[in-house]
Amino acid sequence: MAVGGPDSLEDVGAYLSEVRHGRPTPPELVAEFRERYRRIGGKSPLREITTRQATGLEAKLASEGYHVRAYVGMRHWHPYIRETVAAIARDGLRKVVALCLTPYYARMSVGAYFDAVKEAVRTQGLSLDVAYVDSWNDVPALADVFAERAAASLASLAQDGFPDPYVLFTAHSLPRKILAEGDPYEKELLETMEAIRARLPPIRSRLAYQSAGRTADPWLGPPFEEVIEDLGREGEKAILIVPFGFVSDHLEILYDIDVEAKERAERLGVRLERTPSLNADPKFIEAMAAAVRPRLTS
User: Fold this and answer.
1) Among candidates 150, 152, 183, 184, which has minimal Cα distance to 169?
2) How far from each other are the two terminal CA atoms of the chain, in whole angstroms?
3) In sequence order, what are the residues at sequence separation of 6 or more whose Cβ sits closer than 8 angstroms to the Cβ of residue 257?
4) Chain-wide mean pLDDT for the chain?
5) What pLDDT score does 298 carry?
6) To bridge 268 with a disulfide, which of 56, 162, 232, 288 should be the other Cys (CB 3.0-4.6 Å)?
7) What is the helix (H) or strand (E) element at residue 96, kind and residue range?
8) 140-274 belongs to which CATH class?
9) Of 19-23, 145-149, 292-296, where does mean pLDDT reach its minimum?
């Protein structure tokens, strides 16, 4: 399961309405996001990438003797989770493993995906045995592939004359109140960040957040935009962003980092690069498989 994204510029308004749970979207906000999607190719690549991830996972598990079928469900776009649950039932399957394509559990994100599955099962009157993968941030293969990407980017920057870039690990922000509620999201992010760091040479780094909501409530920080500004003022010459809170290319990678953050860094005279997204890398497929295997036999 993934968040989903518009298939065309014409879909942007309807997509934002889904994300905003049906609340009216100001026309200026629709125009702003339509321009963002225009600058990354006119649509979200997320459905295509998620489908390739599902296909890769199915093939990987089949090669190990598991008889499985992998389905894709999106929270805010087609194919919706409810549509996918119906398709699973029509195909005569009863045992389901629900895997969110974020390894870090938060009730507001992963919990909402699981609620969508439960609601679909309930409203459609289905009898499905669903196992939920809450967190899989501690899968060693996940830290391995993130570290491999980071090491390659560090080596590339070193060849270009930047042997000691500042490394900025980024993830999606959530309202700060989740910490008081005991949500493990930030703790799991820090655990995985340390696992990645342990696989790398010594680096200067910190965690920052992207995509805070436009609400009055405080969100997890610091915002990565502010950190880039601070590092530029402090004289850093190069920054490597490791967006380890995300596993696929989508708007928050292709626009927020590749366009907006890079333009911000250029104004500051800072070289900014990011590690490539995991997408359907076979090593990431192995991490997905490691998360799923225990639920296949339980």
Assistant:
1) 150
2) 21
3) 170, 210, 241, 243, 274
4) 97
5) 64
6) 232
7) strand 95-99
8) alpha beta
9) 19-23
